[in-house]
Design a protein that fits this description.
The protein has 442 residues and is an alpha+beta fold. It folds into 2 domains: 192 residues, 3-Layer(aba) Sandwich (D-Maltodextrin-Binding Protein, domain 2), CATH 3.40.190.10; 203 residues, Periplasmic binding protein-like II (D-Maltodextrin-Binding Protein, domain 2). Helices cover 43% and strands 16% of the residues. It has 20 helices and 17 strands. Strands 8, 9, 12, 13, 14, 16 and 17 form a 7-stranded mixed β-sheet that branches. Strands 1, 2, 3, 4, 7 and 15 form a 6-stranded mixed β-sheet that branches. A two-stranded antiparallel ribbon has the order 5-6. A hairpin with a 4-residue loop joins strand 10 and strand 11. Helix 2 crosses helix 4, helix 8 packs across helix 9 and helix 10 packs across helix 11. The two termini are 28 Å apart.
Length: 442
């Protein structure tokens, strides 16, 4: 999964998408509609996803297992480019009533997809018949799957900003507990002291941060203070004092050389792998990269939740989820097979967590003894309780505009080219500019 999603393009309006020309384009994206009997005589289920990274390889392996166990179902899975390319195709296909039978989205993008017109609601009875129970999911994530009291998503996982640490370096720095886990810190000052001790060992940085992806740190530390960002039709509510408190540690870390002043996603991970930093704050999906490095080079690392700056360990994150794109008509056999596919993937999501680093949303998996003994996943499994979804507005959420707009401003803070106060003023200016834009799906 990329660390730098691009902003959505100027999509056509939903009214335009429903014109004859775009209907034809939507049909072209997906081919013919859902079929009960394909040429193979099997029930055909078409799945679209945006998992083009290392976690996608894990899902492909799971798909192969599903196919082997369901000889009567022909699963056709298609992976599109992460972010904007995927959501553009999903909107166009669903507008024509001829998209995939099931698609993987980010829960934070649900409202921006105009679910009442582009998605099919899911009946609770359907998932219960497939062996799932609403009580099997974290309440906060489950609640995000509803729009206007209708269920539109089946959550797959939670994924979030987490803290990786190099045990060898951190042991030399004296910041490991007796069980060789990273010492817990409370408050900004304690954490900066920890980074100073680590920097004394590395000679370069305490932690590596993606300075182009500052939205994640900002939202984590703003939400740790119970900060709310509530958008209205032409204005918003943002707590300036809490926002500044979220930005100031970025400037302080960069100013003292505790983190890089300029570092993109690739360099951020490399700083951790080559020992320039003893810690790194990136997404939990980077576990795939670091495991591969460990196998090739030898790399004693683990991971935990991000630090408690303001009384808790809330962090920015999201949830992958299954949705059913709108169909002009549903074949009941295809629909049943589609729900069975989703249920099977959840029941087998131990492989998703172990291989891809995401924390399964299906509680019978995450609460199992097998998962709780999984390392290092079990060490950060509490992140499920601390994931903070982006603000509820069409330009927020994974691969949406607010990530890039705020991140571009905070990049200047890390580069010491802008003070926190200047950054906050510009963030608010850009937020007002986004509010003035129409939702391209409306």
């Amino acid at each position: 999964m990329t660390n730098n999603p691009s902003p959505p393009p100027g999509l056509l309006s939903r009214r335009t998408l429903l014109s004859g020309a775009t209907l034809a384009a939507g049909a072209g994206l997906s081919g013919c509609g859902s079929l009960t009997d394909s040429l193979s005589g099997k029930t055909q289920v078409r799945q679209w996803n945006l998992l083009a990274g290392a976690d996608g390889a894990v899902m492909t392996q799971m798909h192969d297992q599903f196919a082997a166990e369901h000889p009567d179902i022909e699963l056709q899975a298609t992976t599109f480019g992460w972010g904007t390319p995927f959501y553009t195709r999903l909107v166009m296909g669903a507008s024509g009533g001829n998209a995939a039978d099931i698609a993987t989205i980010h829960v934070s993008r649900l409202q921006s997809l105009s679910p009442d017109t582009l998605l099919s609601p899911i009946e609770i009875d359907e998932i219960v018949e497939a062996g799932l129970d609403p009580e099997d999911f974290p309440a906060d994530v489950w609640d995000k799957c509803f729009y206007e009291d209708k269920l539109y998503c089946i959550p797959i996982d939670t994924h979030a900003l987490v803290n990786y640490y190099n045990r060898t370096i951190c042991e030399q720095a004296g910041v490991l507990a007796p069980d060789r886990t990273l010492l817990e810190t409370h408050g900004v000052e304690e954490y900066l002291d920890l980074l100073r001790a680590v920097k004394d060992v590395t000679g370069e940085y305490g932690t590596s941060l993606d300075t182009f992806a500052g939205w994640r740190q900002f939202w984590a530390w703003y939400r740790q203070q119970d900060g709310e960002w509530i958008f209205h039709e032409d204005d918003f509510e943002l707590d300036d004092d809490k926002a500044l408190a979220a930005i100031e540690p970025m400037y302080r870390m960069a100013e003292e050389g505790l983190c890089p002043t300029i570092s993109d996603g690739g360099q951020t991970a490399a700083n951790f792998e080559n020992g320039a930093a003893g810690l790194v704050q990136v997404g939990n999906w980077e576990i795939v990269r670091f495991r591969a490095f460990n196998e090739a080079q030898g790399f004693d690392f683990s991971m935990t939740e991000i630090p408690d700056f303001y009384g808790n360990r809330r962090t920015q994150g999201d949830s992958h989820a299954y949705v059913l794109p709108y169909h002009n008509s549903w074949n009941p056999d295809v629909r049943k097979a589609t729900i069975e596919y989703a249920a099977w993937m959840l029941r087998h999501s131990f492989d998703w967590g172990a291989g891809g680093g995401h924390t399964p949303a299906y509680l019978p998996v995450t609460e199992s003894e097998e998962y709780q003994s999984l390392e290092p996943n079990a060490e950060y499994s509490g992140v499920v309780e601390n994931v903070q979804f982006d603000p509820e507005v069409w330009f927020a959420g994974s691969a949406a505009r607010i990530y890039d707009e705020v991140g571009a401003v905070l990049q200047q803070v890390y580069a010491l080219a802008m003070t926190p106060e200047e950054a906050l003023a510009l963030i608010k200016e850009r937020a007002h500019a986004l509010l003035a834009l129409p939702n391209p799906v409306d």
